[in-house]
């Protein structure tokens, strides 16, 4: 049973004692009554926001209860106010309601039942309204993030097509220049700059929940403990890092690389919030999100979760900053000190994995981020086998390249032909099907290398048609982002070959050889 803290504002001590008795006669112990006798004392209490409801007498010496009510509303007081008077007055009743009173009671007519009902209704209405406003705010935030995510994903996809051409041409040109040639280092610089730009688009894709991921079932403690060494190098010497792994932790299904990305972003954020040192605590624990909790938050499902929390003792955040921290490119750091994508990336990754992210912070009292990931009921974690990288391979097979971006199509064709492959090109899925069924290709095609998002017939739809007609044909998808029709909101299905734009000549050649030799 939740306690209800009541502040009585009345200049007559007898009325305070009467109110005490009325509350005692209600029959439960949930009411805590405080009393002040003056307008000034009441204003001091109201600004502390420590009470659930206020009972205010109409007469307060040189001031009136109506004046106190109007002051409280103007000052941002959200808790309900019940006005008390010695005599019933219809005009005062109307004025009280217009000023924002939750109820109007005549002292001589109050009994325990009337007082209990008036307080209960007022508090329940206030709490229901507060919950509704909170849910509306969360819904608006979720809709805003979804809209920004769609835009960010589209921009990143288009930008990755441009980067693919830049990175591939630089990679191709570098292979024709000796390392001691003055142009060689400039080509390397172009590749490195393109890769940094690609990393930025990857963060945008993570926020937009269109990042290609390879989730597996794991114990979050393994990721946290393995990353500890790196995290210690990221923080300053005057920051104490404490790691508290939970016992008997549930298993989650997530890409470990994404967990590492979230942790690094949160730790860097915490480090920057403690310029004079402090304590950084990383904790994992099992948590149950109740139906009541899920009802109070947008897009949250009740059930068992593993909670990863990152706490700092830094400068904290105001409510205004807290409301915008997950917005892309929003940052409180100085120009050049951050892109404003770190926390937006965390938000996207958590949502992509069916999780929930919360933040608690107050100015001067530090910040805690809570990441909730849903548990999975599996006996043991899956193993991930990493294949060693090989030298740049070549081949003599035939490849059908389907790409609607001319610059990307041209450079990929050049790259593949230099590796010995015979390349046929199509601008969309319909064009590819026409080629496969025509006499324009003298021999069989060994590999279909197709973009995903294209006009007329998308890459995934093309693959569905091709698999039925040419079951031996190997397929590799490529894209600036992973379309949901391919990856079910970013999750690669087992056996799907995918290459993320932008890519280098080396990455493309290895992926093609890997699929053809499988």
Structural account:
The protein is of the alpha/beta class. The protein folds into 4 domains: 4-110, Rossmann fold; 134-208; 216-376, Histidine kinase-like ATPase, C-terminal domain (Heat Shock Protein 90), CATH 3.30.565.10; 398-517, 3-Layer(aba) Sandwich (Rossmann fold). Helices cover 45% and strands 20% of the residues. It is built from 16 helices and 19 strands. The protein has helices at 13-25, 39-46, 65-74, 90-99, 112-174, 182-208, 220-234, 256-272, 291-295, 319-322, 342-352, 406-418, 429-437, 459-469, 484-487, 505-517; strands at 4-9, 31-36, 53-57, 59-60, 63-64, 81-85, 103-106, 216-219, 239-244, 251-254, 278-289, 303-312, 356-361, 367-376, 398-402, 422-426, 447-451, 474-479, 498-500. The strands form 4 sheets. Strands 8, 9, 10, 11, 12, 13 and 14 form a 7-stranded mixed sheet that branches. Strands 2-1-3-6-7 form a 5-stranded parallel sheet, with helices on both faces. A 5-stranded parallel sheet has the order 16-15-17-18-19, sandwiched between helices. The protein is elongated. It starts with a strand and ends with a helix.
- CATH class of the largest domain, named Alpha Beta
What is the distance, rounded to the nearest whole angstrom, between the alpha carbons of the first and last residues? 64 Å
Main β-sheet: number of strands, strand sense, barrel status? 7 strands, mixed
What is the assigned CATH homologous superfamily of the largest domain? Histidine kinase-like ATPase, C-terminal domain
CATH topology call of the largest domain: Heat Shock Protein 90
Please, what is the average pLDDT?
81
Would you count the extended β strands for me?
19
Report the structural category.
Answer: alpha/beta
**Alpha carbon gyration radius:** 32 Å
Low-confidence stretches: 335-339, 379-390, 482-492
Reported CATH architecture of the largest domain: 2-Layer Sandwich
Helical percentage? 40-55%
How many H/I helical runs? 16
Kindly estimate the percentage of residues that lie in beta strands according to DSSP: 15-25%
């Amino acid at each position: 049973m939740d306690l209800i803290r009541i502040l009585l504002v009345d200049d007559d001590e007898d009325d305070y004692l009467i109110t005490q008795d009325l509350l005692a006669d209600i029959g439960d112990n949930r009411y805590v009554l405080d009393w002040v006798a003056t307008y000034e004392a009441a204003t001091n209490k109201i600004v502390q926001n420590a009470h659930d409801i206020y009972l205010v007498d109409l007469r307060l010496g040189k001031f009136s209860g109506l004046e106190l009510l109007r002051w409280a509303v103007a000052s941002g007081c959200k808790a309900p106010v019940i006005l008390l008077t010695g005599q019933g007055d219809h005009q005062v009743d109307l004025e009280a309601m217009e000023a924002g009173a939750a109820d109007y009671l005549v002292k001589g007519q109050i009994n325990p039942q009337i007082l209990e009902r008036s307080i209960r209704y007022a508090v329940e209405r206030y709490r229901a309204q507060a919950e509704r406003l909170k849910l509306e705010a969360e819904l608006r935030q979720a809709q805003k993030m979804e809209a920004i995510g769609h835009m960010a994903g589209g921009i990143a996809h288009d930008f990755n097509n441009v980067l693919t051409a830049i990175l591939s041409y630089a990679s191709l040109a570098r292979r024709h220049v000796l390392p001691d040639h003055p142009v060689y280092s400039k080509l390397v610089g172009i590749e490195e700059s393109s890769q940094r730009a690609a990393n930025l688009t990857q963060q945008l894709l993570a926020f937009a929940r269109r990042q290609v991921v390879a989730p597996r079932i794991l114990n979050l403690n393994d990721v946290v403990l393995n990353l500890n060494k790196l995290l210690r190098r990221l923080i300053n010497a005057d920051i104490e890092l404490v790691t508290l792994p939970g016992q008997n932790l549930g298993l989650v299904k997530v890409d470990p690389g994404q967990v590492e990305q979230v942790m690094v972003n949160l730790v860097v954020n915490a480090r920057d919030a403690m310029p004079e040192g402090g304590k950084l605590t990383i904790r994992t624990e099992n948590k149950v999100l109740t139906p009541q909790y899920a009802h109070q938050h947008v897009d949250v499902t009740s059930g068992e979760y593993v909670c990863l929390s990152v706490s700092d003792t830094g400068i904290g955040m105001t409510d205004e900053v807290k409301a915008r921290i997950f917005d892309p490119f929003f940052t409180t750091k100085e120009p050049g000190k951050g892109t404003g994508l770190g926390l937006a990336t965390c938000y996207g990754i958590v949502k992509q994995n069916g999780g929930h992210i919360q933040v608690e912070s107050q100015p001067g009292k530090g910040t805690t981020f809570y990441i909730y990931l849903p548990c999975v009921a599996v006996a043991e974690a899956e193993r991930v086998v990493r294949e060693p990288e090989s030298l740049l391979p070549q081949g003599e097979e035939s490849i059908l390249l389907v790409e609607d971006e001319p610059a990307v199509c041209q450079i990929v064709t050049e790259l593949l032909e230099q590796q010995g492959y015979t390349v046929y090109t199509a601008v969309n899925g319909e064009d590819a099907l026409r080629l496969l069924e025509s006499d324009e290709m003298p021999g069989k095609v060994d590999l279909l290398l197709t973009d995903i998002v294209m006009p007329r017939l998308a890459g995934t739809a093309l693959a569905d048609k091709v698999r039925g007609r040419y079951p031996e044909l190997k397929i590799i998808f490529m894209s600036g982002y992973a379309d949901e029709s391919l990856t079910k909101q970013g999750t690669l299905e087992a056996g799907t070959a995918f290459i993320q734009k932008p890519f280098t000549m080396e990455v493309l050649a290895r992926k093609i050889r890997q699929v053809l030799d499988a």
